[in-house]
Specification:
- It is a single chain.
- The chain is of the alpha/beta class.
- It is built from eleven helices and twelve strands.
- The strands form two sheets. An eight-stranded mixed beta sheet has the order 6-7-8-3-9-10-12-11, sandwiched between helices. It has a four-stranded antiparallel beta sheet with strand order 2-1-4-5.
- A hairpin with a 2-residue loop joins strand 11 and strand 12.
- The chain is globular and about 70 Å long.
Length: about 325
């Protein structure tokens, strides 16, 4: 089966002023050469520390922020070269679920108007058909259709996120970027939203890019997982293989921090503690970008340019000089 979405050498660099005395601007390499595929019906989890470029990656795929270099193919079409009108038509098939359900809803619009806004913008439903679609979306995400005239402030955080999900599904998209959709919710509500996303995926045949920092949730919902560090993907593999056979030292450190509910197993685990802070993306380290914090770093990691992102076993990709 051909991939639904193909990302090739995607880069997003933001200019940063050097100040009054330094007129030469520097560049913040938020996303620095990503290459991966996403196949129809799967969920690719994207994990990493805050500030590593996960959200920028999702926005760049949807062309919400311009890419500096690279290409994004959706259903065989290079959407990075499309004009405004052509891109507008493609966007019906590409949607996003935002992290903050409080800030992503217009407080002056009723729920019915919020859910109908995509229909109005693209002119795909009017009159009775529009009302039926809004009621259908509310029922789809588990909200009472009688709430159609209520405003966002009258709903809880979990209900607002359901509204955001319903709005994203209004135009029957094929691909949805879920940008940390449960990070702002109570733990008791997170499982409900994750289950809702999985049920909708099964019913509608959706494909997700699921961005998160909670590795337990990512393992539950994802088909494959990509680990990101300082704008680069350092490892990508099948969910079970990544958790049982992590190859990159950064992935190993992340997984060592995931708690295990069995106290006997937890007592025997060795925690890998990374020293130092995340390097400045405007001035990344030479060589491997992780060598400043890697407990296994060798001279080759500091001297040789960043390791290639390569397939070391079927479906398992890693970027590390120390992996044979």
């Amino acid at each position: 089966m051909p991939p639904l979405l193909t990302v090739q050498n995607l880069k997003v660099h933001f200019p940063q002023s050097g100040g009054f005395l330094n007129r030469q601007p520097s560049w913040i390499k938020a996303v620095d050469g990503l290459t991966f595929d996403i196949y129809p019906g799967e969920t690719l989890g994207l994990v990493g520390e805050s500030g590593c470029g996960k959200s920028t990656t999702g926005q760049a795929i949807l062309q919400m922020v311009p890419s500096t270099d690279g290409t994004v193919y959706f259903e065989g079409v290079n959407i990075t070269t499309l004009g405004d009108e052509a891109l507008r038509k493609v966007r019906q098939r590409l949607q996003m679920i935002f992290q903050d359900p409080y800030g992503s809803l217009n407080p002056r619009m009723t729920v019915g108007d919020i859910l109908a806004e995509p229909l109005d913008i693209f002119g795909v439903a009017q009159g009775q058909t529009r009302q039926q679609r809004v009621a259908e979306l509310m029922d789809m995400v588990g909200l009472n259709p009688s709430f159609i005239y209520r405003y966002p402030h009258e709903f809880s955080g979990g209900q607002r996120q359901r509204i955001v999900i319903g709005r994203a599904l209004a135009l029957n998209p094929a691909f949805v970027v879920c940008d940390e959709p449960i990070a702002a919710l109570d733990v008791s509500i997170q499982a409900q939203i994750v289950n809702l996303l999985q049920n909708l995926q099964d019913e509608l045949g959706l494909t997700y890019l699921f961005i998160a920092h909670d590795l337990s949730v990512v393992r539950h919902i994802s088909t494959r997982i990509a680990v990101m560090y300082l704008g680069k993907i350092v490892e990508l593999a099948d969910r079970d293989r990544l958790y049982t056979q992590p190859l990159h030292p950064y992935t190993q450190a992340l997984l060592s921090a995931v708690p295990i509910p069995d106290p006997k197993v937890e007592a025997t685990r060795q925690r890998i503690v990374l020293e130092g802070d995340l390097p400045n993306p405007a001035n990344p380290p030479k060589g491997c970008c992780f060598h400043t914090r890697c407990p296994l770093a060798e001279p080759i990691c500091r001297q040789k340019p960043g390791p290639a992102f390569r397939e070391v076993s079927p479906g398992h990709f890693v970027a590390c000089h120390l992996v044979p």
